Amino acid sequence: MTDMDTNVELLRCSEELKSEGNDHYRARRWEDALAAYRSALGRLPKLKSIPKARSPEKDSDADESLLERDSSGQSSNEDMRKQDEVIPLTEEEAQVAKARSVLNANIGACYVKLGEHKEAVNACTEALRDDPNYIKVLQRRAASNEQLNTWSSLSSAQEDYNTLLGIVPESSNESREVQRTLRLLKPRLEAAQKRETTEMIDKLKGVGNSILGNFGLSTDNFQFVPNGQGGYSMNFSR
To answer: Is residue 234 left, alpha or beta, with left meaning phi > 0 and alpha meaning psi from -120 to 50?
Structure first.
């Protein structure tokens, strides 16, 4: 059996399990759907990482080769560009990538239904590795990051919404909805930044007081003043 025949069989088995998952999902059996989708995903070949150009420090032979080409008047930049080129997927690999992306998207949808938004974000991220412009998944990851409601997660949601603005038609209802969401997100992001910065400073003060107390000082001797660039400056006073 050839590799192509093997992948065709794996796709067939994966599709059957995905169909089972869809039945469970429609019946609102989220746990069963999740298990079926994960089993289906496990049947598919894993996403291969794109090989990167090897550094000279790790490959002296490659370094010498480039130097030889330089001495003959040919640029090593051309060699590096060739190594960085993304090799197009074959039709078969594209089918596997699409199936993998859809299954990860479905897994993310199950986690959303189960209220496990951190896991939903992770699953959506995996789906986007195969299909970076998967609109529904970008929306789902952004929504789950909003639910997590941390400075970091809200920043990630903002990035996804901005990505969506570059994908959906500018005059579409989707674009207008994303723009509205971004406007609503901005004050939440600023509030989360302020809240977490205050919490961090309070923790640092607690640690600082335990040390400075030995010298008759406290963190009250140090004032944190916003520097107008999103950070703080520290001033000392008696």
So the answer is: beta
Give the max Cα distance, the chain: 81
The pTM (predicted TM-score) of the whole model is 0.71
H-only helix segments in the chain: 3-26, 30-42, 60-71, 76-84, 91-113, 117-130, 135-148, 151-165, 173-212
Q: State the Cα–Cα distance between residues 131 and 125, nearest whole angstrom.
A: 10
- For the stretch 14-46, pLDDT in tens is 999 999 999 999 999 999 999 999 999 999 999
Q: Which of 152, 150, 103 is nearest to 129 (CA)?
A: 103
**How many Å apart are CA 40 and CA 95, to the nearest integer?**
14
Residue 108 buriedness (CB in 10 A; 0-12 / 13-18 / 19+): buried
